[in-house]
Amino acid sequence: MSGDFWFDALLGVLLLVLALATILARQLAAAVMLYVVFGLMLALAWARLGAADLALAEAAIGAGLTGALLFSALARQPKSITPPVRISRMELLPALVLCIAMSAVLGWTLWQLPLQPAHSQLPAALEQLGSSGTEHLVTAVLLNFRAWDTLLELLVLLLALLGSRLVAAPEPAALQHWPLARQWSIRLLPLLVLVAFFVLWRGATAPGGAFQAGALLAAALVVLRLNGQLPALRFDMWWVRALILAGVLAFLLAGLLSVWLNWQPEQAVQWLRWPLPLAKGLILLIELCATLAIGLTLTLLVVGERKELTA
Amino acid sequence: MMAWLGAVLLILGLLFFLAGSLGVLRFPDVFCRLHAVTKADTLGLGFIVLGLGVLQQDWQRFLLMLLIWGLVMLSGTISCQLLGQYGREQTTDQEEPAE
């Protein structure tokens, strides 16, 4: 057996152990930390599988921002909830039955899936890559061939934000502002913005794109906000709302434009298919709007608030 | 020859990581643990970057890795300071060190 095999096997076992440890951890803070480590290892696993796009997204969103989100949720917890609540066995029984049934259905579905799809769409996608407006296959799939999916993903993110606004979260505890942290966040800001736009721009030719860039922007905004260097971001500010809607709006407008440009009588309506001369520009425009929207949405999910924080 | 040098540097780096992890597990309080873990970040990662640079002999990549090392060192030192500050505030608040 080669060294690669042992590394991958170790990584797989480590992932399983970390997942179990996250679920079984007694303290919520420990569970969150283990979850962050799990996210990083998962990113490593994606990288080993050659899916650099997913690895980037997992590291930035799965490990980084979700970790910050969970920690800020922990900070809002009243202290009394932290010790584990004892639940009797009888109460657990329905949940257990449900979980086993769900696992069985999921496992059965997975079993039905062929390991190697008989009709892979990859050759067809590779053939059309030249007419997609980008040179990176993943970006071409996300923003051209299957643009519909990405539009729905942006809508899901929007729905998540709207849903989270319905939950009356308790006010977070007063934040401490350390001079060192503030200095560091100011120094980090230009670097993060630079890397975010680099990742966005690079998405045309190599792994990268709107979700990763948006997560980096969100990281910069979250750090600034947690250090009290940014005024409170609230959904009822008009520019926040405009930027958050920008991603979906740009996508929809580009879709309508494509319907109009592709219009030929007596043919099926072509929705979200970019004409070649405009493809690159449209994709970049959508990605830019989506990056800003994703960045701000994720920021609001982590540090959004209704009232001004008492510093 | 270069391969041996690279391997020795990598193993040195790994030893620092091992020592750092042991320190986090075994040392009694926040400050000692921070001491252990920051050594792993700076020296351990530094040796690994050097080792990889020797093995690869690709200057562009080596410079990139040096930059990453610098960033990790900066964020490591700063988070160490912040954690230390937090630890000190906690211990002076409670008049007794947390275990």
From TrEMBL, chain B:
Transmembrane segments: 36-55, 62-84
InterPro entries: PhaG_MnhG_YufB
Pfam family, one: PhaG_MnhG_YufB
Alphabetized UniProt keyword annotations: Membrane, Transmembrane, Transmembrane helix
Keyword Ribonucleoprotein attributed: no
NCBIfam families named among the record's database cross-references: CPA3_mnhG_phaG
Protein name: Monovalent cation/H(+) antiporter subunit G
